[in-house]
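Throughout our pipeline, every protein is held as a single compact record rather than as scattered files. The record that follows is passed on verbatim for readers who wish to inspect the format.
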Amino acid sequence: MRTERPVVKKPASRQRLLMRGERLVAFVGIMVAGVFLSAMAGSLWWALQAQRRVSQAANVEKVRVIGESLARTAETLLTANEVSTLRAVIAEAGVKYNLDSCRIVLPNGQVIADADPLRINLLKVPSRWSGAAETYAESSAGKKTSVRCPLVIQRRGQAHLEISATTASGLLTDLEAQSGLGVIGALSLIALLLVYRHCRVRLRAIGAVRQALLAASAGEKALGALEVSPKFGPEAAAWNRILTEKKELTEQIVLARAKESLQSGHAASGEVGAACDALPHGLILVDANKRVKYVNGAAAVLLQAQRDKIMGADLTEFIHDERILEPIQRAAAGPTHKRTIIEHERDASAGGGVLRYVIRPVRREDSGVAMIIIEDITQQRVAEKARNEFLAQAAHELRTPLSNIRLYVETALEEGLNDPATQAKCFNVINEESGRLERIVSDILSVSEVEAGAFDLKNDDVRFQEILSQLQADYGPQAKEKRIEFTFQSPPKLPVMHGDRDKITLALHNLIGNALKYTPEGGQVTVSASVDQSQIAFDVTDTGIGVSSEETEKIFEKFYRAHNGRAACETGSGLGLALAREVVRLHGGDITVQSEPNQGSTFTLTLPIIQEAA
């Protein structure tokens, strides 16, 4: 039940905390306003500069157009020898277009027309003159623009027109645009201030909470120093509520730990209790009433219950098997020298597995307390089952060739003495069965070495071109005998990698041998190789009996044979694919399969190209 807490006066540090929280929001607002004003000032400056550049370019274009127009007029008037009219036009143009200078100059430098008549130094223009006029030129220095246009006067000679003008200041010519930018900036600033006032009210709680978090990270633990004013809104109220709940939760945790410490102190103390908790097996002590006096962590895990709920509770709430409860009752009720061992298999709903219960009294001379040790032996049972299955399969596989060898030895001794053909047939079968027996024993030993971690690789250069040639020679006669189309497809040159040549050859032998074994007469078996930058892949494709999708992974298990009537007719140990995959995986590669029943299979063996030979 929550009690009312007295209202306490906030200390001076609390007031300063609130001020710091509000100052944070104010600082953010000032920074935003500063960035906005800087952006507006930069925009205004950029607009003025752009306006000035545009104005200057326009004035330059204006002077150029005036020059071209006056040049055409001057050529016409000089050709007609209208010098007086020309001088009047030049003077009028200088005044009309506010030009700094406007004159026509002959190649020898004499001025025949000028906006300022006092600068004319050749009053009478000759009928012809020599010399070439200067070419067209245009220049701009600061605010002044100059243009020089060449003149060609028919039947008289050449001259040129010189014009210069001063560009007007952009700051004075477009005052209206500048005023508009200023008004927009002022209105935007007012809107920003209004938004800031609204955000300041809404964000001051966040600022105050941030200051409280900083104070907590600095080591402040007092609740009064971390609370914020409720006047800051719902965020502040939520923060204060979190602080209150944290304090209450801390108090509950302290009480729970104290209670647990008191309860565990009755059963064990100090190093003894810690040692019992460190045991990998479950340990439970119960009294004559089946009340739990002590339980360690491992027992709580195995019983799938919380430790504090088991302590002091009735053991029958967690163990329901009477085969276990009855020996516990006997051990707690009277002294006995006998211990009881019971194995209990849990249901799948309880997680499955097998638990071993060892029950005995704590002291033999008196009664009152029984000790229960619980051990999870699920993995032991799984290992024993796998070992027994392995031995049974191995014995079965070894019995078949041994029986055949004994049968044909007897036949050779009884009938072969008088019949050489029968004797030769028996010896042939004995030879084949002894070879099969040797392969089975070799595969079993290899699989055992793999599982024991003693399957070592003898690394050397592996030349796949030689291995493929050897495989083609080894299996060619068998394929020809079954009338199977047996082909090899590989690039002209295969890389040389570093690995165990014999074991890689063994893996390929198993894949090709299975393909030929389970492909009926008239079928096809193709062995193809492909190479990329990181690996080499061998695809063994056949048109044989195939396997179902449910069995594509199981066929790589030891002694597994596909559930197919046609596969059962063929002899085999069921170890070849398991051994082949382990060999390839030891080299960093893998074997995968794609197959459909009665459609054939494709086994893909991939190996990383670890190192090429020099």
Q: What stands out?
A: Confidence is low (pLDDT under 50) at residues 1-20. Residues 459 and 499 are 4 Å apart (CA to CA).
